[in-house]
Every structure is written in structure tokens, then in C-alpha cells.
């Protein structure tokens, strides 16, 4: 009688998620791709993937919005790659005036910041502090070590293992490099 359709885990109301975040995801995809039809396809694919992977969604690890935007980012990258390989497939369907690359880059940066923030919440406080202070705030290792009252080598170790844990957290969230 046809293909077997995966049954999502209970708890994720896709209709409510679409009502809450569909328009925002569409605007994000439209700014990234500049094509209304492709943006609609992205939103459909985001909710299809969310529905299929709903069993892996854990509200303790990431907000629904962040999870959906992480999926959207991956779908937009896939679409952009498809357009790069087959540029003749790109058709502007609605003539929308998109703000251009500067706005798209700002949107992408905002989504990346949300995703990194969620991933940082998943790692230990010691690792998070070391990464935030040295990488995000650009402070020298010696200064951070003095403030924390630990040797510089300990800060370096926390950064090293913290980055490994951060990569794993991003992987668990479904974020592709």
C-alpha cells in the first residue's frame, strides 16, 4: 500500500511549530536564497525534517526555534549548493526585493550565534568559561588563568577539551560544518 512513513514521537506539534515559526523561517530562507519558491521549498523541507526527527528533539537541550533554525540553515546550504551546481534551476518566482547579501550575512550570523549559544549550554561550566573568555572575548590565557586561580596549562586544556565537547554538542544538534 505504498511507502512506510515514519511516525514522529509524541510531543512535537508540527502545526503549532509552523504557526509560530513558519513565516520567520520563510523570511530567513528568502533573504538567503533570493527566491520565493526556493524559500517555500526550504520551509517545507525544514518541517518535514523536523517531523521525521521529532523524536530527537529535546527542549532541555535547545529551544524549538533554535532547533528549527539549525535545520533551516542546513537546508539553505543544501539549496545554495544545488543552485551552484545547477544554476539553470534557479527561477525567481515572486520578484521579491531582497535586501541583499549584507542582510543575508547578518541573518546567517544571528542564526549561528543562537546555535552556538545553545551548544555552549550543553558543555560543562568550566569548559564554557574557558572558551567564552579566550575565544569569544579574546582574552589571553594567562589573564583568564589568573582570574580563575588555575595554571595556564589548565585553561589551555579546558579550551582544548571544551572545543571537542562543543563540536560534539553541535553534532548532536544536527548542525553541519
TrEMBL record:
MF-aspect GO terms: DNA binding; sigma factor activity
PROSITE patterns per UniProt: SIGMA70_ECF
Keyword field: DNA-binding, Sigma factor, Transcription, Transcription regulation
CDD domains: Sigma70_r4
GO biological process: DNA-templated transcription initiation
Chain ranges of the RNA polymerase sigma-70 region domain: 18-82, 119-167
Organism domain of life: Bacteria
Gene3D superfamilies per the UniProt record, alphabetical: 1.10.1740.10, Winged helix-like DNA-binding domain superfamily/Winged helix DNA-binding domain
InterPro entries (UniProt xref): RNA_pol_sigma-70-like, RNA_pol_sigma-70_dom, RNA_pol_sigma70_ECF_CS, RNA_pol_sigma70_r2, RNA_pol_sigma70_r4, RNA_pol_sigma_r2, RNA_pol_sigma_r3/r4-like, WH-like_DNA-bd_sf
Similarity section: Belongs to the sigma-70 factor family. ECF subfamily.
PANTHER family: ECF RNA POLYMERASE SIGMA FACTOR SIGL, RNA POLYMERASE ECF-TYPE SIGMA FACTO
Protein name per its UniProtKB record: RNA polymerase sigma factor
Organism taxonomic ancestry: Bacteria, Bacillati, Actinomycetota, Actinomycetes, Geodermatophilales
